[in-house]
Each structure stands twice: as C-alpha cells, then as structure tokens.
Amino acid sequence: MIRMSVLTVAMCGIGIFGTPQARTQQLTREEAENLKHLLQPKFAVAETVESVGFVAEHCTGLHVNEEGIIAELADVGVEVDDDVINSPEWKLWEDRGRMNSTIGYSKDPAAFCERMWRWLGPEHNPPSVKHTLLTKD
User: Fold this and answer.
1) φ, ψ (nearest 5 deg) of residue 74
2) Do 90 and 78 meet the contact criterion of CB atoms below 8 Å apart?
3) Torsions phi, psi of 64, nearest 5?
4) Are residues 54 and 33 in the same domain?
5) Which residues pair with 62 in a beta bridge?
6) Full domain range(s) for residue 34
7) Is residue 11 included in any domain, yes or no?
8) What are phi and psi of 107, to 5 degrees?
9) What is the 3-state secondary structure (H, E, C) of 61-106?
C-alpha cells in the first residue's frame, strides 16, 4: 500500500524530495523534523489568504477585505513586507490554497462561493479565522 499525504505529493512535485516519485513508506524522523516548520500558523495563513484571493476573482460580489487580511497576518506575526511571504514554504502553502480552491470551485461554483462566504465572511466561525476576510456587495 502506498501512503502519501497531499503535502508529500506537492513537495515531490516541486522537487523538495528530489524527482517526483511515489513513496512507499512513511517519512523518516529526519524528513518529518525538516518539515515541521511548515506546520507553523503563519504558513497555514498563506493558504487561507490565497483562497480569499481566488474567491474574490471567481465569486461574483465577493471581495477581499484587506484590513482583515492584514490583521490575520499580524496575528501570526507576519507583516505585509515580511521576507517570509517570498519564501518557498509560503509559496507552497499559497499553491495549496489555490489548488484546493480550484478543485472546490470546479465541482460546484455556487456552493463553493457560498461555503467560502460563510467561512471567511463576517459570520465566520472562529477560531479557524479570527477576522472577516471577505466582504460582499
């Protein structure tokens, strides 16, 4: 049985683990330790922020709430001009946000937009998102 996480597939695809190939075992302790920093909240915010951008581009009437984005970033210690935003790790999580949004939108655009509005709009359910990240016309 081949066991692979989405993160492992993505990392193989971008060359973090070398050439793309199926892994037939779990990560070694060393590999897991090397990836632990990717689980920091600041990188998870990268995925959410990218999803917000996707929603604003594809869902009519929904817009990015820049003040909310800045506040969400600040909560995890990231400033808009922070170097971490240009790091490969940040880009990896941005790509994950775009990929997940693309998949969700392609299945049912209207349901996706409504789901994202409930999750990221003013009636959001903390603690996953602390600030309103989307506004509506």
Assistant:
1) -60, -35
2) no
3) -70, 130
4) no
5) 136
6) 6-38
7) yes
8) -75, -40
9) CEEECHHHHHHHHHHCCCCCCCHHHHCHHHHHHHHHHHHHHHHHHH
22 with 58, same domain: the answer is: no
Judge if 67 and 112 occupy the same domain. Answer: yes
Q: Is the model's pTM score more than 0.90? A: no
User: Which residue type, as a one-letter code, is found at position 40?
Assistant: Q
- Does residue 111 belong to any structural domain of this protein? yes
**Whole-angstrom distance, CA of residue 8 vs CA of residue 116:** 26
Same-domain status, 87 and 23: no
Tens of pLDDT, residues 96-132? 999 999 999 999 999 999 999 999 999 887 667 899 9
Residues 29 and 50 occupy one common structural domain: no
User: CA nearest 34: which of 91, 88, 77, 81?
Assistant: 88
- Give the position of tokens 């993160």: 7
